[in-house]
Specification:
76% of the residues lie in helices and 10% in strands. The protein is mainly α.
Length: 207
């Protein structure tokens, strides 16, 4: 359960700030965002220590059945993914703390939305890093693309920000098609989207 919280805490921060940030205020919203990433980092430490000696998976949800194959969404912690998740959470926490001072002069202008986007960005990044299958990674990729668009275009009254947000949106859509093509190709070759199953079948598919 602690390992799942690494991903759920930023998502919970996003939901709380996004739904109630207007009533809570900008500074409390910023603090909730920082706490979500900070506690995710703390929980990632024991998960990383455990994964270094014994990689493990956490099943989250049976998503869809495709013939004899059932796609299950889950998380996979090995030395690389767990340490990367810890690093992502640590850097995110530092950036979120810095953003409080950077955005302070805008408090009172619905800045809570900015912090909601930050939490969503972290959640999406963790989905890319920790998902045990390609579809979960794709959801994370889409989330990062959406959060990037919202964060880059946050200062929408400035033309350079809206132009940059649009460019990011277009590039992400190009990446979407290539990513989906890769997912279809992998499923065709390996009959699975689960990373561990794909790794086990590599030698059989391409000796």
């Amino acid at each position: 359960m602690e390992a799942v919280l690494i991903v759920l805490l930023p998502l919970l921060s996003f939901l709380i700030v996004g739904l109630f940030g207007r009533k809570l205020g900008d500074l409390p919203s910023a603090i909730i965002t920082v706490l979500g990433s900070f506690f995710a980092f703390l929980l990632s430490i024991p998960a990383s220590i455990k994964a270094l000696s014994s990689p493990f998976s956490v099943s989250l949800y049976e998503f869809i059945s495709l013939g004899n194959y059932t796609l299950r969404l889950g998380l996979y912690f090995d030395p690389l993914s767990s340490l990367t998740a810890s690093l992502v959470c640590l850097i995110a926490t530092l950036i979120f703390i810095y953003s409080i001072g950077y955005m302070q002069n805008l408090f009172g202008q619905w800045t809570y939305k900015f912090y909601a986007y930050l939490s969503f960005f972290l959640f999406s990044m963790l989905m890319i890093v920790l998902s045990d299958n390609l579809l979960g990674m794709f959801f994370g990729w889409e989330g990062v693309g959406l959060a990037s668009y919202l964060l880059i275009g946050y200062f929408h009254q400035q033309k350079y920000a809206t132009n940059s947000a649009f460019e990011a949106f277009v590039m992400n859509r190009i990446g979407d098609w290539l990513y989906l093509f890769g997912i279809f190709a992998v499923f065709y070759l390996f009959g699975s989207l689960n990373l561990l199953e794909i790794f086990e079948k590599v030698d059989a598919v391409d000796p």
